[in-house]
Every structure is written in C-alpha cells, then in structure tokens.
Design goal:
Layout (H helix, E strand, L loop, with lengths): L10 H16 L13 H16 L5 H8 L2 H21 L6 E4 L18 E4 L2 E4 L5 H7 L5 E8 L5 E7 L5 H14 L10
Antiparallel strand pairs: 1-5, 2-3, 4-5
Helix pairs in contact: 2-4, 2-5
C-alpha cells in the first residue's frame, strides 16, 4: 500500500518502494497491491485525536480542554480504535504483512526552526507541514500493530529510504523476518561515508 489519495509520497521514494516489492516478488513471495478496508483519513484523525489527548495533561487547563476534548470523547476514540483493530485482524487472515512507506520523503535536513507544526518540507515540489511525516507511522501505530523499518536503497542524491513492514497484532517476529529478507534483497544498510 504505497499510495493513498491526498497523502503524497516523494517520487523517488515511491520508485524505491516499488523496486523493493518487485525484488521480493522476484524472490518468490506473493506480492500484490492491497488496500486494507479502513479509511486512511478516519484512522489518521483517530491517531491525532489520541495523541492530542495524551499530551494535554502537560498543557494549561483552558488549552487542554479546547484541544483534548472530553473524557467521553477519549472513550469513544478508544472504542473506535478497538473496532479498527478488529478490522485489521480480519485483514491479516488473508495477508502476512503490509508494506507501506515509513515516511513520505527520504532523509531531509535537520530543522529546529519554529515548532513541529510550523516547520515545512518539500514533497514533489509542494510545501507540506512536518505533520505529514506522521501520516504513515501514525496510521499503523494507532492500532498497535508491529512495524519494522528496513532500508531499501538511496535516492539519486544518496539519501536513505526505508520501507515499513507491518505485521498482524503480536506477530512481531514475522514482520522482523520479512523486513530482514527485504533488506537483504535491497542491499541492506550501507553506512554513510565517514562512519
């Protein structure tokens, strides 16, 4: 699942993701384009809702109430998370793993200006918020699935790119094994010059 409408992935990253899937297929794995039966936007919104609720205790009361919602909202979000986990569990009865981007971009320059929300990066010629970086990992993390990032190559500028291998709940070792195989097929981790 390398592409989702409205969720841009850098062209070079996308090419490396596809190449990794092709290499896995060439090695004998059954690889197909799949879209789990969930709404990316809905699951993403749930991720941000739960993250916001988790950080509001450290905020002033007025701001926390505005951002975090009520305890009832949090309970409703937990109920929806449980429903989504059941959907994913059913999906994983037909698939061993999900391959998807770790990040929508290759590595980029370290930036500490402003805050995370105000920082920007460029994806395919369009300026995006740094919050875009949370989309794929947040999508998976919110439903508590095991995920392994594995190296799959470098861009034309030598920047590293990874692939996220997601397994079924509590099948961490399977995700690790698949990620290891993909890393071997794609050349593994190569330290940057000078390290």
């Amino acid at each position: 699942w390398f592409e989702e409408p409205g969720v841009p992935v850098d062209h070079e990253v996308l090419a490396l993701l596809r190449r990794a899937a092709d290499r896995l297929s060439d090695a004998g794995a059954h690889v197909e384009t799949a879209h789990p039966p969930i709404s990316f936007d809905e699951q993403q919104a749930l991720f941000f809702q739960l993250v916001t609720a988790a950080i509001t205790p450290s905020m002033p009361d007025a701001l926390a109430q505005t951002m975090g919602g009520t305890h009832r909202d949090w309970l409703d979000a937990q109920q929806r998370r449980a429903e989504l986990k059941r959907i994913w569990a059913e999906w994983f009865t037909s698939f061993d793993a999900l391959l998807c981007p770790v990040l929508p971009t290759p590595a980029f320059l370290h930036d500490q200006s402003g805050d995370f929300v105000s920082r920007t990066l460029n994806i395919n010629g369009t300026t995006r918020s740094h919050t875009t970086l949370l989309q794929w990992p947040g999508l998976i993390g919110v439903v508590e699935l095991p995920s392994v990032a594995t190296p799959i190559g470098r861009t034309n500028n030598g920047l590293p790119v990874g692939l996220q291998v997601v397994g079924a709940f509590l099948r961490d070792y399977e995700a690790i094994s698949i990620a290891s195989t993909i890393a071997q097929l794609c050349g593994g981790y190569v330290p940057p010059p000078g390290y």
